[in-house]
## 1
Amino acid sequence: MADVAAKERRILVAIDEGEESLYALTWCLKNVITKNSKDTLILLYAKPPRAVYTALDGTGYLFSSDIMATINKYSNDVADRVIEKARKICREQNSDVKVEARVENGDPRDVICETVEKLGVDVLVMGSHGYGWIKRVFLGSVSNHCAQHVKCPVLIVKKPKPSVGSK
Amino acid sequence: MADVAAKERRILVAIDEGEESLYALTWCLKNVITKNSKDTLILLYAKPPRAVYTALDGTGYLFSSDIMATINKYSNDVADRVIEKARKICREQNSDVKVEARVENGDPRDVICETVEKLGVDVLVMGSHGYGWIKRVFLGSVSNHCAQHVKCPVLIVKKPKPSVGSK
C-alpha cells in the first residue's frame, strides 16, 4: 500500500454553482488538508455541454446562434464566479494551500472522471447533490457515477440541513 | 458550518472480511487521522442476517438448528478475526488513536446507516466493494446505499488493482 500521506497529495474538489460543493470544499480544507501540508488542491468546474441546454429548451427547436452566444457568456460568468468563491474559501480556511483552478467543458461525470485519471489525483472530493435537481434529471447523480468509476478514494460530503426532514 | 476538525471526531470505518475494507482503514489512518489527534476510530463489522444464509441454501428448505449453530459459530469467528486484523492495522499505523470495535447483526446497509446516526459519526469510511460479489447480488452495493442515506461525509476507498483492466 502506497503511503499517500508522505508525498504531495493532489486533492481534486469538484465544484459547481450549488452551495453543497462549496461546503464540501470547506469540509475538506478543515478535515483532510493539514496546515503546512504539501497538498495541491485542484478546483474543477465542469461547464455542462450544449446538449443539456438544448434539452432544456423542450420545444425540439435548436437555439439560434445569438441565444447560444448569450448562454455561453452566462456559462463563463458562472464558472468565473464559482471559481472565485472557491478560491476565497481556500484563502480563508488555509492560506498556505496550493490551489489550481480548472474549467472544463462537458458532462460533469466524464469531465471529473477524466481529470482525476489525467492528473493522477489522490482524492476526489464532491458534494452529494451537485448540479441542481433539473440537471440531475438529465445527467443522473454525478457523485454516484464518479464514486463508481474513478480509481482513487472519493469523499462525498453532504451539507447538513438545519432541521428539515430527511426527504 | 461546524468546525469538525477542532473537536474530537468520530470516524467510523465499516470493515468486512474483504481486503478492500482493510485497505480503506489503512488509507484513512494515513490520510485522515493525524498523529496526536483526538479522533476516535470506530470499527464496525456487520454480521449478515440469517436470511442471507437461508437464501444461499437455494433449495427452499430451511437449515436445521445444527447447521444454523455451525453457521453462527463460523460467523462469530469471522467477525473476531476481522476485528483483530483491523485492530492490528490501527496499532501499526497509529498507535495513539483511540479505537472502539462493534459487531452488529443485520443487513450491512441498515447496520452502517443506523450506527452512523446513533453514534453521531462525523465521517464514514468504506471500501467500495465490500461483502464479496455473491452477497452483493443479494444486498446490492453497500457503499452506494450508505453514501446516499447517511447524513455525514462518506469516504469511499478502492483498493488499487495491480495492472488488471478496469472491468
## 2
Amino acid sequence: MSADDFIVTPWHVEGDIDYDKLIKKFGTEKISSELLDKIKNITNEDHFMLRRGIFFSHREMNRIIEDHQKGKGFFLYTGRGPSGHTHIGHLVPWVFAKWLQEKFDVNLYFQLTDDEKFYSKTNLTLEETNKFAYENALDFIALGFNPEKTKIIINTKNIQTLYPIAAQVAKKINFSNTKATFGFTNETNIGMIFYTSLQSAPCFIEDKPVLIPLGVDQDPHFRLTRDIAQKIGKQKPALIHNIMIPALTGPGGKMSASEEKGTIYTTDSPDVVKKKINKFAFSGGQPDIEQHRKLGGNPDIDVSYQYLRIFFEPNDEKLKKIYDDYKSGKLLSGELKSILIEKINEFLKTHQEKREKAKQQIEQFLLQNK
Amino acid sequence: MSADDFIVTPWHVEGDIDYDKLIKKFGTEKISSELLDKIKNITNEDHFMLRRGIFFSHREMNRIIEDHQKGKGFFLYTGRGPSGHTHIGHLVPWVFAKWLQEKFDVNLYFQLTDDEKFYSKTNLTLEETNKFAYENALDFIALGFNPEKTKIIINTKNIQTLYPIAAQVAKKINFSNTKATFGFTNETNIGMIFYTSLQSAPCFIEDKPVLIPLGVDQDPHFRLTRDIAQKIGKQKPALIHNIMIPALTGPGGKMSASEEKGTIYTTDSPDVVKKKINKFAFSGGQPDIEQHRKLGGNPDIDVSYQYLRIFFEPNDEKLKKIYDDYKSGKLLSGELKSILIEKINEFLKTHQEKREKAKQQIEQFLLQNK
C-alpha cells in the first residue's frame, strides 16, 4: 500500500483517507457551498458538522431539499453495527441525524445490525451482538430523540418487518454485484452475502423518499440499493456522508469499537477517559517542550484536536484559538489533551445519566412488528 | 445429455433418473431389507411406499430407529415450495410423513417456502407465492393431521422464528459450498444464495434429532445442513427420500406444478382429471388395439400404472393384476386410464371436501412466532 493508498469498505477502513479521491472512487458528490446555503436557509442554522466538512459528501441531497421545499415529505434512516459498546465516534451521525430530524420535523429509523456483526466477526455470538444492540440503543436514546417520531430497528427482533422488503431487494442483486461492491470472495459466508439486502430494507419502510446520514464507509451498501431501487418500483435513497472518526492512536483507520485502547466508550469513567487520552491519543506535538515551544504542534494530525473539531468544540472561535495556540507552540500537547479530557468527561457525565434513564424508555423506541 | 444422463437439483429435474446411480452420486444409502424389517417391527405395518421402493433411500434412518428404540425422541419435518397449486405428486411425502407421525407419535413441522419460490421464479411475486403457500396448506391439512402435534411454517410469516437459527447455519456456509452443492453462479441472486439456511432452520427448531421424509431432489439442502450441523453443536438431520413422481406426459422430469398439462391439481374437477389423463397421460401401450392385444403394454413406463403404484392402489394383489393384465395385452391403455381416473376422482372428492373444511382449521396449524 503506497502512502496515498487507503481502503474504505463497510467492514475495513485502513490508511490515510484522501476524501477528494474517495468522492471520485465512490462516485458521490462533494457538498457544495450552494448546497450548504440551501440547508442553512431552510434550517436557519449553520451546523458546525456541515460548516467544518465533517459531513463532506452526498448523493442526491439536492433532491431531498427540493422535494422538501415543494412540501413533499421524506424520512431519515441511520444505524450502527453492534460489535461492542458505543464509542464517541459513533455519535457523530446520530447527533447530526437528530439535528436534521428536528429541523425538518421527520421520522427517523435507527437500525442495529446484530446479524451483520455476527456474520462478520468470527468470535461473536448472535447473543452477544444482540446484547450490544440493546446497549448501543441506550446511547442512541440518551441523545434525546422523540419516541413519537423515532423507531429503533434491531435486525433479529424486527426481521419479520424487514425480510419481505429485503427479499424484493435480494432478488435483484446477484453474487457478482456483491463481489464488485464489497470485494466478497467464494469464501464469504452466505449470511454476509445476503446481509446487504437487510441494510437496504429500512430505505423502503415508509412509502416516502429517505435521507441517510452515515459514515462514508457504509456508502457501498446504498450504492447497491440505489442501483436496484427503480427495479422494485422505489425511489433511490439519498445520502449524506461523514468522514471517518480517527482512532485515538492516530490516523490510519476509523475508531473501532473492537480495539480497546484506540477507543473511548460512552461507558468509560472520567479516570479511564483521562488515562486513555493521556496514554494513547496520537499527538501532533514535538518530542519535547522546548522544541514544541519553538516549532509548534500540528493540529491537523493531532487526534485530540480532531476530536474537538469533529464533536466536542462546536464554537468556531474557541476552536480557532486552540488551533492557533497549538500551532504556535503556546499550547502544549498535554494541555490540549486536558482540554479534550474535560470536554469529554463533561459530555459523558450527562450522557451516562441519560443513558441510565434510557433503560426505562427503550420499549417506547423499539419498532413493533406488525 | 446421453441416454442415461439425468439432472436432479432442488430446482431442476430432467432426464430418466437411475436411482441406483443417484444414490451413489448423492452419497445416500439404499433402504435395505434389514432397515425395512426394523421399521415393520416397530410400526407393525408394511407401508406400501416402503415395500414398493417409493421411498428408496435414506441418510441415518438407522440412527433414528435405534434412538427411538432406546426411548429417545425425534421429530419430523417436511415441506413444499409453493410455486402453484398442489398437485397429486406432492402428497406422496406428506402422506408418508403422516404415517410416520402416527406410528412414532412425534411432532411434525411442515415448511412452505414462499420466499424460495419468489427468489427462484422470475415471474412470481412474493404475494403470489405467499397466496399459494396458504392454498397448499389447505391440502396438507386436508390429509388429517393432528393440530396438537403438527405445525405449518410459512417462511415469510415465521421468519422471526427461523432467522436466528438460519443465521447460525449461514455463518458456516460459504459461496463455494453453494456453488458445489447447487451449481450456483455469480449471476445467482443473493436471496437464493442465502435461502438454503432457511430450509435448514426447521431441522433445529426442537432440541431433538429430526427425520425428514422428502423428495430426493431436496437432498442437497440437507447435505449442506449435515456438513455444518456439528459446527453449530447440533445433530445431523436424518433423511428418507422418495423418488420423483413422473409428469403426466411421461418420464424425463418430475411432475411440475408450473406446467399445466403435465399436472393434476388437487383442485381439479372430475371432468378435468378425466380429460387430462385421457389426453396427456403417457402410455406404455401399443399404437393400436390389435397390436396391444398381441404384444401387450409396458406398465413400467406407463404413467397411469405408475400413479397407481406410487399412490392410488395400495393393494398389492389388485396392482399385480393390473400389471399382469396390461403386460399381457388383456387390459387396454384406455381401460388402465379409466381405472386411474376413477381412483383419482374418488380420492379428490373426499380430499376437496376436507380441503374446504381446512379453511376453518388453518389458524390452529400455523406456527406462532414467539
